Amino acid sequence: KQMPLSDTQIENVNAGYANGLKDIILNKDKKLKDVLTAGGKYKDITDASFPLKQYIDSVYPGRPVVVDMWGTWCMPCMDAIARTEVLKKTLDSKDVVFLYVATDTTPLDEWYRKAPEIDGEHIRISSEAAGEIAKEFGLTAFPSYLFFNASHELLKSYSYFPGVKIYEDLVKDMAKH
Q1: What is the pLDDT of residues 107-129, one digit of tens each?
Q2: Where are the alpha helices (DSSP H) in the chain?
Q3: pLDDT at residue 56 is higher than 90
Q4: What phi, psi does 62 have (nearest 5°)?
Q5: How many degrees, rounded to 5, is the angle at CA 33 between CA 27 and CA 37?
Q6: Which residues pair with 156 in a beta bridge?
């Protein structure tokens, strides 16, 4: 796991590096600290099992949840995220949780860099845990989507981006109930 720099390490960076490299190191450290202190929005739990349904039942009771299985390396994932980010800003979906689940196939530093650009909750899990989710919900590819209503009953699942219109209609329907 990545760790923020200690006070001693920061002193050493300040004393030992020229401005360009020093700024890069300290900015990267600041971003990492921002991510790690973001109120639990970013959880790297690659070293544990991840029963998705149990997680959403305990963390988001009574709230509808859209699960987006993605990876920084997946161009269709990144394209769909860009399209849904624009859409989410126009929807009245404040009660809907957007849970982005990446796997350890996404390097940790890439995940820490990219996740804060995506509005929602973020979890990084092991490939094995993702395989269990895929098996449980019949998912076969990235990106994959699971749409759970407020009672956490599965409304729809897709092993591809279903398109902006279907995504929008499902989120609007979930936000009403």
Answers
A1: 988 898 899 889 999 999 999 99
A2: 7-16, 19-36, 52-59, 75-90, 108-114, 127-137, 164-176
A3: yes
A4: 75, 10
A5: 150
A6: 147
**Contact status, residue 157 vs residue 143, Cβ threshold 8 Å:** no
Q: What does the chain come to in residues?
A: 177
Spatial contact of 137 and 73, defined as CB atoms under 8 Å apart: no
The DSSP bridge pattern shows strands 144-148 and 65-70 to be: antiparallel
DSSP state of 158: E
The pair phi, psi for residue 41, each rounded to 5°, is: -70, -20
**Residue tagged 């988001």 (tokens):** 60
- The pTM assigned to this predicted structure is 0.78
Return the structure tokens found at 175.
């936000």
Please tell me the distance from the alpha carbon of residue 167 to that of residue 85, in angstroms, as a whole number. Answer: 11
